[in-house]
Amino acid sequence: MTLAVAPEFQLRVRRDEPMSRHTSWRVGGPADLFFTPRDRSDLAAFLAKLPREVPLTWVGLGSNLLVRDGGIRGAVICTHGAFTQLDRRAQQRVYCESGVPCTRLARQCSAWGFGQAEFFSGIPGTLGGALAMNAGAYGGETWRYVRSVDVIARDGSCRTRPVTEYQASYRHVAMPANDEWFLAAELEFPLRDPAVSGTVRALAQRRKDTQPLGEWSCGSVFTNPPGDHAARLIEAAGLKGFRIGGAVVSEKHANFILNEGSATARDLEQLIAHVRATVQRVHGVTLVPEVRVVGETL
Ligand SMILES: Cc1cc2nc3c(=O)[nH]c(=O)nc-3n(C[C@H](O)[C@H](O)[C@H](O)COP(=O)(O)OP(=O)(O)OC[C@H]3O[C@@H](n4cnc5c(N)ncnc54)[C@H](O)[C@@H]3O)c2cc1C
C-alpha cells in the first residue's frame, strides 16, 4: 500500500529508502517514507499532516540500530543533517540540537573551555541518539549534563521539559510521555580540568587499541551486566570469531559483532541470539542487548 503524503512534501520524501545507507552496520531493508526535515516547524507541519496511524521511527546516525531486512513500515524521521544548531548560552551552558554529531559537540565544548564533555568524542552518533540511549563513555554519561530538553509530539506540538521529568540509568531513559522525541537539549558542563583531558586522550588511545573501530558494527551489542563485562563473558564462552553468514564476533573485542561485508540483518540477529543463548548456558547470565532492533523480517 502506498502511503499518502501532503502535496508540499511529495518531492522531499524519499520512498523505499534503503536503511542500509543510514546504519553503521550497513544493513536494513527499505523504509516506506524517509524524511529529513529542514527545521522544527517543517517537521511540525509534516507530522501534523501525516495520518495518525502511520508509525514513526527516528534515526540519527544509525550507530545503535539493527534494521531488519524487510525494512520499516511507516515514516522514518532522520535528524542527521537536520537540527544542527549548537550555541553557547550562559557561562557554562550549551544549547545543542538533536542532529548534531556527538563528536562535534565534544570538539566545540573543548574550544569553549568546558570540561567533562570529552566523553562525547567516543560516541559516533547524534545528540538525539545519545539522549535516547543515555550514551556514555570513559565514565561520562549524557544525562548527567542535561538541564532541559525540547521535545516534539506525534501531532507536531513542541515543548520544553526540565531534566527532573526524566529518570536516566545505565543506557536507559524513562520518558514522561510516549510518542515524544528529542529536538534539542540544554547541557551544562564545568570548566575544563586539564588533568582529566589528558586521561580521556589516553582512554581514547586504549579504545583504538582494543576495539575494532573503522569496521561495520554498532559498538557494544550488549550492556554490561552488574559487576561484569559482556565482552569477558562472551570471550570466556569461546565465541570470539564465531560466525553466521557474513556476521562475526570480533576477535579484537568480543562484545562487537561485525558485518564483514555480506551480512544480512538476519545473520546479525541470529548471531546475537546465539551469543545470548550460549552465555546463558555457559555462565547462567542473561545478556541484555544495547542495540535497538526495528523493522520487519523478510
Ligand atoms: C564503533 C562504535 C562505538 C560505540 N561506542 C559507544 C560508547 O562508547 N558508548 C555508547 O553509549 N554508545 C556507543 N556506541 C553506540 C551508539 O553510537 C550510541 O548509542 C549513540 O548514542 C547512538 O546515536 P545515533 O544518533 O546513531 O542513534 P541511532 O542509532 O540512529 O538511534 C538509536 C536509538 O535512538 C533513537 N533516537 C535517535 N534520535 C532520536 C531523537 N532525536 N529522539 C528520540 N529518539 C531518538 C532511535 O529511534 C533509536 O531507538 C558505539 C557505536 C559504534 C558504531
Give me a quick take on this structure:
With 298 residues, the chain is of the alpha+beta class.
Give a quick set of tags describing it.
single chain; 298 residues; alpha+beta; 4-stranded mixed sheet; 26% strand; binds flavin-adenine dinucleotide
Overview of this protein structure:
This protein is α+β, with helices and mostly antiparallel strands and 298 residues long. It has six helices and 18 strands. Strands 6-7-14-10-11 form a five-stranded antiparallel beta sheet, with helices on one face. The protein has a four-stranded mixed beta sheet with strand order 1-2-5-3, with no helix packed on it. The protein is globular, with a radius of gyration of 20 Å. The chain binds flavin-adenine dinucleotide (FAD).
SSE inventory with pairings:
Blueprint: E1 14-18, E2 30-35, H1 40-49, E3 56-59, E4 65-67, E5 72-78, E6 86-88, E7 93-97, H2 102-111, H3 127-133, E8 136-137, E9 140-141, E10 146-153, E11 158-162, E12 167-169, E13 172-174, E14 180-188, H4 194-210, H5 230-236, E15 243-244, E16 247-249, E17 257-259, H6 265-283, E18 292-294
Parallel strand pairs: 2-5, 3-5, 4-18
Antiparallel strand pairs: 1-2, 6-7, 7-14, 8-9, 10-11, 10-14, 12-13, 15-16, 16-17
N-to-C CA distance: 17 Å
Largest sheet data: 5 strands, antiparallel
Strand order of the largest sheet: 6-7-14-10-11
Number of helices: 6
Rounded average pLDDT: 95
Q: How many E-type strands? A: 18
Helix content: 10-25%
What does the overall shape look like?
globular
Instruction: Summarize the helix and strand pattern as letters.
Output: EEHEEEEEHHEEEEEEEHHEEEHE
Give me the secondary-structure category: alpha+beta
The small-molecule ligands in this entry are: flavin-adenine dinucleotide
Radius of gyration: 20 Å
The percentage of residues in β strands lies in: 25-35%
Low-confidence runs of at least 5 consecutive residues = none
Oligomer: single chain
